[in-house]
């Protein structure tokens, strides 16, 4: 199941550079010019596509219209845009429904992990690399889009507001 | 010689006029910040006198973005800390809006700093880190929280209010550092290598956000003073680049960056200015 795997600031920086380059670039030469190796570049491209901010086609990467609006927007409007994007990504839709079904209004990290295991959906929760596991990415983007709250002390996810 | 000192609560606390410099307090006609012959020395363990900064003279005007660059170890971060009052200097004077600043560990309340290493309290959440500085001034708790949340929104941290620093990426940590400085309503925001601990893409994103904060007046600082070792970054962001010499650091040159805003990072002029400054330093 698709989750943007790079953090917000990295993706935003990539889009800013792409914008400077004229909104599109040939991937190999752009990566070489900006000193990005394949390991770091691929998750950026994938994350950007999941969020609908970039498109990759025939060795080229493009900014979408949404990305143009996004980088020009105020922080408040950016959050609104992100929220609209995030609530329509499949994994977030599932989690939102899951939390809505809970009487107490939250789901624990363990329960979420169990849910994915029961549905045979690969979902990693424990790695030491920053944002390399699915859970951390989920929390990062859930917070970015003002969709999820996460209490790290009690390991509970809840909805930020009515979604 | 009598001195005029400033406090954030009101106008100068002691209004004895400083000899030779008329008291132009808060009328806007004096430079925002002025350094006169500022020198910093220290005595090492072998009793040798080491000079770090030598006769620094600088005038910081209103509405400027200024960068300080120079060779490694030339004292640029020391200069920044002296400006804000975090470090003492040996000789010279610093005036804020025409008023002489105290030298005995007095931090200028009109200035706030962003550190390279973020400097967050790990046991506090984002919003608690941001409002921490406000606890030192008289403000009701509810107002502190309101103000902190507003700044958090301005720097794109909304959604992370209750997160702890350990849960944040480097970029989000530095946003907290920036928010914590901005919440104090500084007239001068000083930043010590604010992007150098970040990966290049995150640094790119944050440079743009700082420019937005400063140029769109989303928050208060009318002047930003940044220390950086990245010459292109300095040229891209600044109205003026102050180039320091090898240690003991002195002002080699002040370079006005006459490239209209908004700027393109790939503008030929950026490279030309950068080459010019790099050649000067090396």
What is the 3D form of chain A? globular
Low-confidence stretches of chain B: 1-25
Q: How many distinct domains of chain A?
A: 2
Level-1 CATH class name of chain B: Alpha Beta
- Radius of gyration of CA atoms of chain A, rounded to a whole number: 17 Å
Supply Rg of chain B: 19 Å
Structural class of chain B: alpha/beta
**Largest protein interface?**
A-B, 35 and 30 residues
Q: Any idea what the CATH architecture of chain B is?
A: 3-Layer(aba) Sandwich
Find the CATH topology of chain B.
Answer: Rossmann fold
What shape does the CA trace of chain B take? globular
Largest sheet of chain B: 6 strands, mixed
Q: Major β-sheet of chain A, in short?
A: 3 strands, antiparallel
Computed structural class of chain A: alpha+beta
The count of strands of chain A amounts to 6
Helical fraction of chain B equals: 25-40%
| Helix content bin of chain A | 40-55%
Low-pLDDT runs of 5+ residues of chain A are: none
Topology:
The complex is a heterodimer of chains A (163) and B (282).
Chain A: H1 8-20, E1 24-26, H2 27-33, H3 38-50, E2 54-57, E3 60-63, H4 65-72, H5 75-86, H6 90-101, E4 106-108, H7 109-118, H8 134-144, E5 148-151, E6 156-159
Antiparallel strand pairs in A: 1-3, 2-3, 4-6, 5-6
Chain B: E1 4-5, E2 14-15, E3 33-43, E4 49-60, E5 64-69, H1 76-84, E6 91-96, E7 99-100, E8 111-114, H2 126-132, H3 141-154, H4 170-182, E9 188-192, H5 200-215, E10 223-227, H6 231-237, E11 240-244, E12 251-256, H7 268-281
Parallel strand pairs in B: 5-10, 5-11, 8-9, 9-10
Antiparallel strand pairs in B: 1-2, 3-4, 3-6, 6-7, 11-12
Helix pairs in contact in B: 2-3, 2-4, 3-4, 4-5, 6-7
């Amino acid at each position: 199941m698709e989750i943007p795997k790079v953090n917000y600031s990295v993706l935003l920086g990539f889009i800013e550079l792409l914008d400077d380059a004229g909104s599109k670039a040939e991937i190999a030469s752009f990566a070489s010019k900006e000193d990005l190796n394949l390991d770091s570049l691929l998750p950026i491209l994938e994350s950007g596509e999941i969020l609908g901010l970039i498109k990759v086609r025939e060795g080229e990467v493009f900014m979408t219209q949404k990305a143009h609006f996004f980088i020009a927007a105020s922080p408040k409007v950016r959050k609104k845009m992100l929220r609209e994007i995030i609530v329509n990504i499949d994994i977030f839709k599932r989690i939102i429904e899951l939390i809505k079904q809970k009487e107490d209004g939250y789901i624990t990290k363990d329960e979420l992990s169990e849910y994915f295991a029961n549905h045979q959906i690969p979902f990693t929760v424990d790695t030491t690399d920053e944002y390399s596991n699915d859970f951390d990415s989920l929390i990062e983007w859930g917070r970015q889009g003002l969709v999820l709250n996460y209490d790290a002390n009690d390991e509970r996810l809840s909805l930020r507001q009515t979604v | 010689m009598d001195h005029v000192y400033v406090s954030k609560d009101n106008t100068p606390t002691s209004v004895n006029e400083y000899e030779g410099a008329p008291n132009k307090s808060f009328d806007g006609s004096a430079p925002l910040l002025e350094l006169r012959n500022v020198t910093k020395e220290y005595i090492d363990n072998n009793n040798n006198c080491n000079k770090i900064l030598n006769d620094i003279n600088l005038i910081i005007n209103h509405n400027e973005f200024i960068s300080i660059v120079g060779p490694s170890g030339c004292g640029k971060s020391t200069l920044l800390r002296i400006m804000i009052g975090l470090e003492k200097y040996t000789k010279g004077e610093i005036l804020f809006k025409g008023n002489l600043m105290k030298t005995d560990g007095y931090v200028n309340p009109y200035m706030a700093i962003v550190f390279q290493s973020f400097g967050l309290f790990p046991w506090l959440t984002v919003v608690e880190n941001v409002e921490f500085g406000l606890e030192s001034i008289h403000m009701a708790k509810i107002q502190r929280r309101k103000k902190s949340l507003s700044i958090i929104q301005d720097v794109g941290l909304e959604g992370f209010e209750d997160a702890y620093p350990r849960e944040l990426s480097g970029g989000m940590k530095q946003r907290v550092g920036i928010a914590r400085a901005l919440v104090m309503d500084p007239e001068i925001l000083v930043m010590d290598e604010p992007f150098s601990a970040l990966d290049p893409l995150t640094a790119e994103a944050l440079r743009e956000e700082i420019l937005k904060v400063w140029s769109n007046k989303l928050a208060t600082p009318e002047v930003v003073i940044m220390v950086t070792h990245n010459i292109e970054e300095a040229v891209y962001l600044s109205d003026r680049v102050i180039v320091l010499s090898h240690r003991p650091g002195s002002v080699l040159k002040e370079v006005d960056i006459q490239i209209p805003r908004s700027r393109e990072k790939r503008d030929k002029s950026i490279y030309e200015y950068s080459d010019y400054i790099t050649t000067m330093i090396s």
